[in-house]
Design brief:
Helix content: over 70%
Distance between the termini: 62 Å
Strand content: under 5%
Shape: elongated
Number of domains: 1
Radius of gyration: 26 Å
Structural class: mainly alpha
Length: 523
């Protein structure tokens, strides 16, 4: 046997061992839930076995949220190398759990997003089976999406599960179809809005900093402003979304508090950025380094807000089942016991550590190449899109916003690269009869020039030459080259397909599980 074959066998063995280890840790977490609920809650209710099953499913759902959804908060920071993969997992784990336990609230809506009418549910048993089917279906669909490398919305997964199980339990009339229409609209609204805002910030940074001849001086002026805008956005976002269950305020109050935070941050970071800028190179790599620390804070704050909000996707149905078993009825709101919240928080952290790296890499580096500036633009889009949508009453998905932001910066890069290539080709066409050294000298000067100087140089060039510009076909060919290079279409198609089928897929799975459970439970 050759050495190459031995190395391949060792690599395959290591991969199998890692897979088994991850599966073993996940199973230990589920077994821990069984032991806790089985020993602690047996005296609370005679139907404790249903609660044990529900707790197991809730833990499984929490792990899948950690594996799939959390990648959107830290993926861009990892892809831009502002954070290492291990560092991102540690930060996200700490702040996800903190958000869930500190600001996750003590009451949760039993029917997520009001998508079905609980008055049409016959009895507590039917409600318990419905919620268990919805929770299990949402978890399985998230597991499938993670295995396929597709970041999908956790909220949409559980919404589809509740809808499918609800229709199976109460018929088509049980569904709130206008609300479902709003949720379907968010499939388009979230990524488009997130992509546009991310592209706007990237273009703003390019125009005001990286397109300037003296990038370092431009950065001294603009980066403190951008960081303070980020402080306002995240301060407002965190108050409105992350802390809404422990401190409920209106948009104006949250915005004013965010503005105060922004002003304080501006005066703190400005001298630091000026001092740091003097030590950096006057190029894009130097400017990128100024956005590293803001990105780390953004990843932490996004994780905290996600833990405070989306942990309800894991523990909400479990809390509803717990309440229904204890009180024998269906209620609009259910209290969240500490043990239920702990299942959600610990499960998310374990899922992130075991299975999160794959989706983190997908979001951070496989769709398009990210640096700190691009990742900063995506983080800004994540916060500002949610603020805008909440004020307009639009249902949006944080997953769709983040991934839309990644595509937004990628498509903008394609456009700018293709435009620059077109300008270079036009310069060459105007110099076609001149010496190559003259052309190269002009191109070097053109590349170093600010955006305003570039425009002036092109204008003067066209005034002194009447040579034809590139044809429409030549422009299309150039754009096609850069489009294929900068944004991977296979990921775009796969992710869009996963988004479209999330609700129907989880709904179909939930309906099957509901009928199976009812068939097993009925005498």
């Amino acid at each position: 046997m050759e050495l190459k074959d031995i190395n391949q066998i060792e690599e395959a063995t290591q991969s199998t061992r890692a897979t088994i280890t991850r599966l073993g840790i996940a199973l230990l977490f589920i077994i821990g839930i069984i032991l806790f609920t089985g020993t602690t809650l047996t005296e609370v209710t005679e139907n404790y076995y249903l609660l044990i099953i529900a707790a197991m499913i809730g833990g499984y759902m929490a792990m899948n949220i950690g594996a799939n959804d959390v990648a959107n908060n830290v993926g861009p920071a990892v892809g831009s190398k502002a954070l290492t993969l291990i560092g991102a997992i540690i930060i996200a784990g700490i702040f996800e759990a903190s958000g869930a336990l500190i600001a996750g609230g003590d009451v949760v809506s039993t029917i997520k997003k009001g998508i079905i009418d609980p008055s049409m549910i016959a009895d507590a048993d039917t409600f318990i089976w419905l919620m268990m089917a919805a929770l299990l279906a949402g978890a399985i669909w998230l597991n499938i999406a993670t295995a396929l490398g597709a970041p999908v919305s956790t909220t949409h997964s559980i919404v589809g599960g509740v809808l499918g199980a609800g229709i199976a339990a109460g018929g088509m009339d049980i569904a709130n179809w206008p609300r479902m229409g709003q949720i379907a609209a968010s499939w388009v609204i979230s990524p488009v809005l997130g992509g546009m805002i991310a592209a706007f910030f990237l273009y703003l940074i390019k125009r005001t900093i990286t397109y300037q001849s003296d990038m370092r001086q431009a950065a001294k002026k603009m980066v403190p402003i951008l960081v303070s805008v980020m402080a306002w956005a995240f301060g407002t976002y965190l108050i409105l979304k992350g802390l809404k269950k422990i401190w409920k305020v209106d948009f104006l109050t949250a915005s004013l508090v965010g503005l105060i935070i922004a002003v304080i941050i501006y005066y703190i970071v400005k001298p630091m950025i000026v001092k740091t800028s003097d030590k950096l190179n006057n190029d894009k790599e130097g400017v990128n380094q100024l956005f590293t620390v803001p990105l780390i804070f953004a990843a932490a704050l996004l994780s905290f807000a996600h833990g405070a909000n989306d942990v309800a996707n894991a523990v909400g149905p479990l809390a509803a089942i717990n309440d229904a078993i204890l009180h024998g009825g269906v209620v609009q709101k259910a209290s969240i016991p500490l043990w239920v919240m702990m299942v959600g928080a610990i499960g998310i952290v374990i899922g992130l550590a075991l299975y999160g790296p794959r989706l983190i890499r997908t979001v951070g580096s496989e769709i398009t190449e990210l640096n700190q500036i691009r990742a900063f633009s995506i983080a800004m889009a994540a916060a500002i899109t949610v603020i805008i949508a909440s004020q307009l009453g639009l249902p949006v998905s944080s997953t769709h916003i983040a991934v839309g932001g990644v595509f937004g910066v990628g498509f903008l890069r394609e456009y700018l690269k293709a435009s620059y290539s077109t300008m270079v080709q036009e310069i060459k066409s105007h110099h076609h009869d001149q010496d190559e050294t003259v052309v190269e000298a002009f191109l070097i000067e053109f590349k170093k020039a600010s955006i305003y100087e570039k425009g002036r140089m092109l204008k003067q060039l066209k005034m002194h030459s009447a040579k034809a510009e590139l044809t429409k076909q030549e422009r299309k060919q150039l754009k096609r080259v850069y489009r294929n290079e900068l944004v991977k279409r296979t990921h775009l198609h796969k992710i869009i397909a996963a988004w479209i089928i999330t609700v129907p897929a989880s709904g179909f799975i939930a309906a099957l599980f509901y009928f199976m459970m009812r068939g097993m439970m009925l005498p």
